Each structure stands twice: as C-alpha cells, then as structure tokens.
C-alpha cells in the first residue's frame, strides 16, 4: 500500500507465535514497572470523605497530625486567582481546612493492589498500550 498505487489498506500479521509472545512480554514488563512505580501508589494515596489522613506539609497544622476527612472540594484562592483542591479535616473535634496536597491517606499501604487484582490491572494496562489494530492477536495469547 503506497500512495502511488493504493490498495486495500490492510496488512496481515505474519509473525510467529514466539515473536508475538515476546512482544506481549515487552508490553507487559513496561506496564508492570510503570504500574508499580507510579499508578499503584498514586491510587492508594487518594482519599475520600471519611478516610483518615496525615498532614505531610504546611505550617499552620503540625506535620504528622492525623485527622478524618469531612469535606473535599475546590475553593477559590484570591491571591493566586485560581481554584485549588482543598480538604477539610477534623482533628480532636476541631475542623480545619488546608490544601489537598498537604495531606496523604494515613493507611495507604493497605490499599495497594496485590495478587490477582494487581495482575489483572497490569494486563489491562498492557493490552491498552498495544496498538488497537493488533489487540485481537494478543487477546488470544
């Protein structure tokens, strides 16, 4: 298929099963590394209303303070003139508001994906990184 002599616009995959397995292993390995280094920890550190969080930055509330999230949303900052993510936490019966980047889920290690759920998610990531017109070949492997 060239521009000089147009054809059907289709190509047949003639790679051996061994080559296809090696290609899949490559996609799986790269996505597993990315999943373990970035995505798994990121999703585990996210918090929702009712979760316990620990303060990791800031100056008004001491670092290491543990509180329970009662509100999560956006607030307009008049100094930067932009909306920013904010969180409200309850510490010893007192409600305090601070920037969302100043807190982290206190029990995030327990929320890391492990076992079959981890393998299933890595396979999804690997299949999504394969070009769409080749996925049907790898789905059978």
Report the uncertain regions: none
Global mean pLDDT: 87
Count of helical segments?
3
Spatial extent as radius of gyration:
23 Å
- Beta-strand content estimate: 15-25%
Distance between the termini: 28 Å
Summarize the structure in words.
The chain is of the alpha+beta class. Helices cover 35% and strands 25% of the residues. It has 3 helices and 5 strands, in the order αβββββαα. It has helices at 17-45, 115-129, 135-139; strands at 52-55, 66-77, 82-91, 94-99, 103-105. It has a 5-stranded antiparallel β-sheet, with no helix packed on it. A hairpin with a 4-residue loop joins strand 2 and strand 3 (82-91). Helix 1 packs across helix 2. The longest helix is centred in the first third of the chain and has 29 residues, at 17-45. The radius of gyration is 23 Å and the shape is elongated. It starts with 16 loop residues before the first helix and ends with a helix. The mean pLDDT is 87.
